[in-house]
Amino acid sequence: MSKPKRGPVLTGAHYLDGDHACAEGAIAAGCRFIAGYPITPSTEVAERLAERFPRIGGTFIQMEDELASIAAVLGAAWGGARAMTVTSGPGFSLMVENIGLGVMTETPCVVVNVQRGGPSTGLPTLTGQQDMMQARWGSHGDYEIIALSPSSPQECFDLTVTAFNLSEKYRVPVMFMMDECVGHMTEKVVIPEADTIEVWPRRWYRGPKDKYLPYAPEKDGVPLMIRAGDDHRVHVTGLTHDQRGYPIINADTQRVCVSRLVDKIRNNLDDLMIVKEEQVEGADVVVVAYGISARVATKAITDARKQGIRVGFLRLITVWPFPEKRIRELAGKVKSLVMPEINMGQMFREMERAANGQCKSLLVPHCGGWVHDPNDILKAILEGAR
Amino acid sequence: MNPNQLLGKRGTTDSHPMEGFLRMDRMPHIWCSTCGLGTCLTAFIAAAQESAIPREDIVVVSGIGCTGRAAGYLKYDSFHTTHGRALPYATGLKVASPRLKVCVISGDGDLVSIGGNHLIHAARRNMDMTVICVNNFNYAMTGGQAAPSTPQGASATTAPYGAFERPFNFPFLVDSCGATYVARWTALHVRQLTIAIKEALLHRGFSFIEVISPCPTVYGRRNRLGSGLDLMKFYHDHSITKNFASTRECDIKFQQDIIVGKFVQRDEPTFLDAMDAQMKKTLGAKFVPYVGPMDPARDMTESSHDSDRVPKPK
Ligand SMILES: Cc1ncc(C[n+]2csc(CCOP(=O)(O)OP(=O)(O)O)c2C)c(N)n1
Ligand code: SF4
C-alpha cells in the first residue's frame, strides 16, 4: 500500500502555537520565500519555515538584519515569489523605511510582527500591543496600509492566508500584528484540505509586452504586475513616478501617485474590513478589542452579562484601516465604548476619534508584560453602563 | 565586440547606437557633463551585449545617489531601491528567480557605508551577482560630504579641514569577506572595465568591480582638482595596472598612484549551490528544491478563487 501523497499544506487537526500556525498559513497561502532575522517572540515562525521549506520547494534565508530581510522580501516579490518576513518590535522599527518602498512600488508581501512590550528592547519575551500605530504610520510619508490582528492560533493560520490574499489583491505590504501571547499560545488548529483554501493569484499582466504600463490602475485602482526577467523592461522606483514607473519630481505627479496609493485602500473599505460582532444590537456598552486582549475581554463580558448588563462585543480583525464607520454607527447607539489594549492607548485614540463624542470612550490601558486582569475590564464596563 | 565599434563613428547616424539599451524617453539624464557615470553605463551595456546573456535575464538594482540613478536609465528590468539596500533587494530577486543575472550598480556611500553590512554578507555568501561600485570619493548627490572612500587629507563638506578617518580599501574588504571576483578600474580604462564587467557577468559567484570615477562637480571642485578632463588625465598618469596584486596593497591615498587590475578570480560554491548541496546531503530524496517564481500563466488556474472578493475567514 502506498502512502497517500502529502501536499505542502498540513491538512488536519493539529496542536500548534500561534507562530507555527502562522508559518503553516503562509505555506497554505503559497508563500515560498521568507527572509528573516531572529528576534523573540517571532523566531518560531522562521524556524518552522526553515525546517518545512526545503521539503516543499521553498527558500528560507536568514539575512544579516531586518533592513536586509524586508529588502530581500521586496526583491523576491518582484522576482515572482510570494514572500514574507517575520519580526518583533525592534526589528519592525528597522523595517519601516522599506515598508514605505513596498507601499510606493506596490509590492505584495506580508510582514509579521509578533509584538512584545517596548519601547526599545523592552520586554523580549513578554507580550505587548505597542506597535499598532507604528504599523500604520511607521514609514515616512503619506500612505494607507492593511493590518490584521489574530486572537488565536487558528486565526494565525486562517488570517495569514487572508493577509497574503489582501496583499496580492491590493498590492500592498500587509502587516500581520500578532502579540506574544497569541504567538506562544498552543491550541487546536484545524487546517482544511488544500483545495478548499482560497488563494488569490497575483494580479498578472498578460497583454502585449510593449504595451505594459506598470502603474496604470485597473478599475479598483490597483495596477497589474509582472515578474522581473519576463522582458517587459520595467522600472521600479521609490521615487514619485508616473504610470510608466518613471520618476517625475513635481507636485502633479505626486498628487496622482499618492492619491491612488491611498484611494485603492480607502475606496475598498467594505471589501477588506473584517470585524466580528456579538450582541451589539441593543447593547448599552460595547467592548472593542483585538488580539489577546479580545480573549481576555470575553471573561469580563461574560461576568458583566451575569450582572445583567447589556454588553456587546466588537472584535477587530482588520485593525488598519480602522473600522471607523462601524464604530461611528455604534457610538450613536450605546452609552459607552470600552477598549482594553496592551498599550497606553493607541487604537483607543482612533476609536475615540471615530466615536466623535457621541458616547463615552473608556480605555483600559496596560503597559505590557502580561494580559489585563479581566476585573479591570469589568470595572470599565460597569462604569460605562452607568 | 570592441566598445568603440558599438559606439559607431561619430556623426554617422542620427541615433545613438546604444539607444536600444537606454530609456531614451528619460533623456537628458541628470548627471553632470564629464561625470564618469556615463562611461560606466556605456561599459556596462557593451559588456552585457558581449556576454551574450539574454537581455531579459539581466536585471539591474541600484540604491540611492547619483550612481543610484543608473538603474533608471538602463532599459532592463531595473530597480531603484532605498539607500544602502540594493544588495539585500538583489539577494531576494536572485534567490526568488535564480535564472536572473542580477547586477547592482551603486555608489560607494551606498554600498560600503550605509550598506556595508550587506556588502560583507553578500560577499561571504558568495551570492551570485555582479556589483559595480562607482567610487567618486564622496557623497555626490547630497553635495560632496565625506564618504568611506574619501582619502585622508581630501576636503569634503563634512570634513572641511580635511578628512582624517582611514578610508576603506574596497578590494581588500570584499576579498577578505569571500568575494570570488574582484577588480578595480578607472573611468578612463573603458576597454578594461568593459572586459571586467563582461567577466563578472559570466562569473558564477559574487563579483565586485570598483570603478574610480570623476566627480568634477563636487569632489573635484572642492579639492581644486580641475575639470573632468583633468581628473581623467590624473588617472592616465597615476594608474598602475597590477593584475592579481595583493588586495592588501590597494589602498588609495589622496592624489597618489592608484593600483588597478583584476585582483581576484576563484571558483567557490555560490549561496544557492551550497544550499542545494547541504539540503541534498541531509534530506536526500526528501529535499524538494525551490520551484522558482510563480508563473503568470499557471497562477490563475492553480489558485482556487472564484469570486471577486477576498475570502474572509469564517
Ligand atoms: C536612509 C537615507 N539616508 C540618507 C539619504 C540621503 N542620501 C541620498 S544620496 C546619498 C549619498 C550617496 O552617495 P554615494 O552612494 O557615494 O553615491 P554618489 O551620489 O556619490 O554617486 C545620501 C546620503 C537617503 N536617501 N536615505
Ligand atoms: S555630482 Fe558628481 S557624481 Fe553626481 S552627476 Fe555630477 S559629477 Fe557625477
From TrEMBL, chain A:
The keyword Nucleotidyltransferase does not apply. The keyword Repeat does not apply. Pfam families: PFOR_II, POR_N. Residues 283-377 form the Pyruvate:ferredoxin oxidoreductase core domain. Keywords: Oxidoreductase. InterPro entries: 2-oxoacid_oxidoreductase (IPR052368), PFOR_II (IPR033412), Pyrv_Fd/Flavodoxin_OxRdtase_N (IPR002880), THDP-binding (IPR029061), Transketo_C/PFOR_II (IPR009014). GO terms for molecular function: oxidoreductase activity. SUPFAM superfamilies: Thiamin diphosphate-binding fold (THDP-binding), TK C-terminal domain-like. Residues 24-250 form the Pyruvate flavodoxin/ferredoxin oxidoreductase pyrimidine binding domain. It comes from the Bacteria. CDD domains: TPP_PYR_PFOR_IOR-alpha_like (cd07034). This is 2-oxoacid:acceptor oxidoreductase subunit alpha. It comes from candidate division WOR-3 bacterium.
UniProtKB/TrEMBL annotation, chain B:
InterPro entries: 2-oxoacid:Fd_oxidoreductase (IPR051457), THDP-binding (IPR029061), TPP_enzyme_TPP-bd (IPR011766). It holds the Pfam family TPP_enzyme_C. GO terms for molecular function: oxidoreductase activity, acting on the aldehyde or oxo group of donors, iron-sulfur protein as acceptor; thiamine pyrophosphate binding. Coiled coil: none annotated. Keywords: Oxidoreductase. Residues 66-211 form the Thiamine pyrophosphate enzyme TPP-binding domain. It comes from the Bacteria. GO terms for biological process: cellular respiration. Gene3D superfamilies: 3.40.50.970. PANTHER family: 2-OXOGLUTARATE OXIDOREDUCTASE SUBUNIT KORB-RELATED, 2-OXOGLUTARATE SYNTHASE SUBUNIT KORB. This is 2-oxoacid:ferredoxin oxidoreductase subunit beta. It comes from candidate division WOR-3 bacterium.
